[in-house]
């Protein structure tokens, strides 16, 4: 029993390291999103850190329109990045989980 516990602890540490490595890697995964008409383009990492924003000059004339574009496009980009982030981290966590019947946390 003690050996099993030590094995599980080792596996847990290994999984924690894999999660940290995955988080670092997600800083290099870029997610691009643009408005439907292409007037606004946003790039962020899968960890939801904004890398760039390109704004068409036409949007600079109308603050309210720019605000709307930013909100809509940023929300779409964040949603995409979140899905990638959660899927990658769940996959790593699932690999490291012991097979305990009834504990299907990451299905």
TrEMBL record:
Q: Name one Pfam family in it.
A: YbaB_DNA_bd
What InterPro entries does the record tag this protein with? YbaB-like_sf, YbaB/EbfC
Localized where? Cytoplasm, Nucleoid
Superkingdom of origin organism: Bacteria
Q: Which UniProt keywords apply?
A: Coiled coil, Cytoplasm, DNA-binding
Q: Does the keyword Protein biosynthesis apply?
A: no
SUPFAM superfamilies recorded for this chain?
A: YbaB-like (SSF82607)
Q: Which GO terms describe its cellular component?
A: bacterial nucleoid; cytosol
Tell me yes or no: is Transmembrane among this UniProt entry's keywords: no
**Listed GO molecular functions?**
DNA binding
Query: Where does this protein have coiled-coil stretches?
Result: 5-32
- Describe the function of this protein: Binds to DNA and alters its conformation. May be involved in regulation of gene expression, nucleoid organization and DNA protection.
Record's family?
Belongs to the YbaB/EbfC family.
Q: How does this protein assemble?
A: Homodimer.
Name of the protein in question: Nucleoid-associated protein PW52_15405
Q: Which organism is it from?
A: Neotamlana sedimentorum
């Amino acid at each position: 029993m003690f050996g099993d516990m030590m094995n599980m602890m080792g596996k847990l540490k290994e999984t924690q390291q894999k999660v940290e490595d995955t988080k670092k890697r997600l800083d290099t995964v870029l997610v691009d999103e643009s408005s439907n008409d292409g007037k606004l383009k946003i790039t962020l990492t899968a960890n939801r850190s904004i890398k760039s924003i390109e704004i068409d000059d036409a949007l600079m004339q109308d603050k309210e329109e720019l605000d709307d574009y930013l909100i809509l496009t940023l929300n779409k980009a964040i949603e995409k990045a979140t899905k990638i982030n959660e899927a990658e981290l769940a996959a790593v966590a699932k690999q490291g989980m012991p097979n305990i019947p009834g504990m299907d946390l990451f299905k």
